[in-house]
Amino acid sequence: MKKNMRNAIAASVSAMALICAAEAASSDVGFERADDSVALEWNIPAQPLTDALIAWSEQSNFVVLIEDDLTAGIRSRELIGAFTSFEALERLLAASGLTYKIRDEQTLIVSPRLQTASMTVPADVNNAAGMRDSQRAEIGRERDDPERSGRRPDSEGSSVDRDQIVVTGTRIRGASPAAPIQTITRQEIERSGQSQTGELLRTLPQTFRGGINPTVQPTTVNTNSGLGGDSTVNLRGMGPDATLILVNGRRLAPIGGGETTDVSAIPLAALDRVDVLLDGSSALYGADAVAGVVNFIVADDYDGAELRARAGGATQGGGFEQTYSAAAGERWEGGSFLVGADYLKQNPIFAGERDFSDTAGPLNSLLPANRQWSGFMSGNQELSSFAELDIIGLYTNRRASRTTEYGAGGFADSKTVDTESFLIAPRATVELPAGWTAQIEGSAAHSTRDIETTDNFGGDFDADSTNAAWTIGATAEGKVVRLPSGDLRAAVGGGYREEALDADLGGTLRNGTRNIAYFFGEASAPLVSPSDDRLGLARLELNVAVRVEDHSGFGVATTPKAGVRYAPISDLVFRGTWGKSFRAPRFDHLLADNVVTLWNAPNLGSADPGLAILNFSGNPDLEPERATSWTAGVDWTPQFVPGFDLSVTYFNIDFRDRIVSPIVNLGSALSDPAHEPFVDRNPSAPEQSAIIDGADQFFNISGLPYDPDAVLAIVNSGFVNASSQHVRGTDVSFRFAPGAVAFFGDFSWLKIDTQTIPTLPVSRQSGFIFQPAEFRGRGGASWEIDDSFTATAIVNHVAGSKDNVAMPAAEVSSWTTLDLTLQYRLDSLSNALEGFEASLSVTNAFDNDPPFAAGGGVAFPGMFFDSANASPVGRFIAATLRYSL
């Protein structure tokens, strides 16, 4: 009977699920969904996912809508034990690359976890969009009778469901991306023990703590800075500006005079999940997606309310943190709305509170003080049987303050940074003829920053900046043609984006605007029909994409990408990608002041007495930084080991035309032959006058009067496209959930070679102090007991490095920490505590200090550790109480 039914619906769970719902609706008691607060006994063997979802639908009384090709060739894990309906479904889908979204009290939609499309149900067919015509005919027999189908007829207000499954990796519905993607689910966020978005992302082995982050101290690497209290994501250690940050696929406005995105503006309380795309993706998302993309997905479709309070602190002192959040949502026929607020306050940690930094100025901030208010909202509403509107919004107001003391009793300054940002992004989705879907979306993002700095010598400095970005675009997606192997689907679109900076950096004005018009296209098709029975060729899929961007600053950039997925058998998938990406020049690289300084030539490395002119400036003629990347990987979900999956990915990135100030060491500017392309020897008086007259600022620090005849050289150290990087490595991850205990691990091996300018040799960058480690790993286990108690333990490891800053060079030890999280549902103690959950988290449970690094003290007196690879916080204990209505 089941075999006949399976043949009739051709692997579509939708038909079977609708029949189950119809039978339930026609019974005396009518439709009644399983109470998801009650654990049910499940016994579903490992089998094709289609059959497993049919079994789940029959027991849960949910209608399941799903595209037919999504489950072809995929097997589910064995499911035995007591779980709620949704817990059971999540376990069945865990290794499939699929997820689900609740449509209403009777229906849910299963869709690809990592695509971008709306999963729609046409008004005249209770089925998932994109199904074959023959399958629609089968279901049509059930839909003719509204009462039997368990749904309201159109005359009673039924309309198309167009839940936007905001996902990452492709714009085509039903396509499976070949690029490596990691998803941090809401459950994983809860079990991480983290309360701030930046720290959550920095636990991933594929990220680097260095760059712009709150605990980073001044180092010899000028891209490392924590002075503003900002929090960024630095994938592969290629720089925060090489990682594109999105919220539901939309860009945030950058912060300050540069163009990095502060992810602390995104409260954890607002998130449903985080998708991390670990591959260059400018063909899909445009500029800056070189190392990858981090897409924060704001929760929606929430019905209820939640209150949360958290308090904690570091056991060595300082860093006391308190957070409070509230969220409330309502779902109704055809729409939903969610609104929430979040407040965070954290005290600073000073150098004098840690043994490893107590010889530095005691008032140095290892962790800045932080106060932040955030608000968020999301909503969607069906406008008709073929149109829907959805919207998301974020607002953040943050104040960070820190003290920097250059040696005990030396120069010190105090910095207060006020930042305000918002994002508002509406989108309309319209069902077109022939099964196509169109989206028209816009977004407006804005950030302002005010920095006030005072020092102990009476100095006072104020800097203000405003960044703005707005976008409008349109996309259409649908089936182009039916091939013998399946549907050839495509997505096309285009749009316009404007970015602007208005900054007053203590009297130095920096203002700029650029406009970007773009067009993209993507196509995806199965090259063979998916089949579980064809050994050696179960699936073969191809995806290609191209994007053209016309920038007002440097012209046109064209970025292609291709991906392939090959499954010789249903539980083994080989995948590969190739593509080009680019990063647009930052405003501070384009608009930096032209500063000319007169030096005593020997101080720049000259063997002869005389003067030298150092010329530093922005460069409006900069070209984009360009990258070519490829990945090759394998995903294995063996049928003979239920609950196990393994993923291995090799990545290779050639990043060239990187923007740098080419004089690496000013002390050797006139003596190192590598700098010769940037030195003009024996300049004439008119050449000198042209440089000096064009300067925004001129300083004479030579101690001698300016004499054109005494000038030996002009050193040009303005920004140029000169540097290159070769980044490669391997990521390995596994999951094993045989029962109540789930084991997991993520590991990343990394090598980075850099050529700062073409005349210098290639040198190894990774594995040295203040640079990315060559290995990071994270592994652990989570244990669930009786649906009321969960214990999670995670071990984090950062490989040692070489300290080449101190003399003599030395080894820096590896750093290993243990994180623990305990969660307990209090209603298991008493019905009076229904809805309450308590949790206790301990990060760095053994209180391991950062390893000693003498070079840290060379870069900043008394800071004898590498703040780019280890945190100075130490053991941090926090308790959280959550109440859900």
Q: Helical percent range?
A: 10-25%
**Structural class given helices, strands, pairing?**
mainly beta
Which residues sit in consecutive blocks of at least 5 with pLDDT less than 50? 1-34, 114-166
Span between N and C termini?
43 Å
- The proportion of residues in beta strands is over 45%
Major beta-sheet overview: 22 strands, antiparallel, barrel
Secondary structure elements and pairings:
Blueprint: H1 2-9, H2 13-26, E1 40-44, H3 49-60, E2 63-66, E3 79-83, H4 85-93, E4 98-102, E5 107-112, E6 117-121, H5 133-143, H6 146-149, E7 161-165, E8 181-185, H7 186-192, H8 197-202, E9 243-247, E10 250-251, E11 271-277, H9 282-285, E12 292-298, E13 304-314, E14 321-332, E15 335-346, E16 349-350, E17 365-367, E18 369-384, E19 387-405, E20 412-431, E21 437-455, E22 460-483, E23 486-505, E24 508-528, E25 539-551, E26 555-569, E27 572-583, H10 587-591, E28 595-600, E29 611-616, E30 625-636, E31 644-660, E32 679-681, H11 685-693, E33 697-700, E34 711-716, E35 720-736, E36 741-755, E37 763-764, E38 775-785, E39 789-798, E40 801-803, E41 810-812, E42 815-825, E43 836-843, H12 854-859, E44 876-884
Parallel strand pairs: 2-5, 9-12, 28-33, 29-34
Antiparallel strand pairs: 1-3, 4-5, 6-7, 8-11, 9-10, 11-12, 13-14, 13-44, 14-15, 15-18, 16-17, 18-19, 19-20, 20-21, 21-22, 22-23, 23-24, 24-25, 25-26, 26-27, 27-30, 28-29, 30-31, 31-35, 32-34, 35-36, 36-37, 36-38, 38-39, 39-42, 40-41, 42-43, 43-44
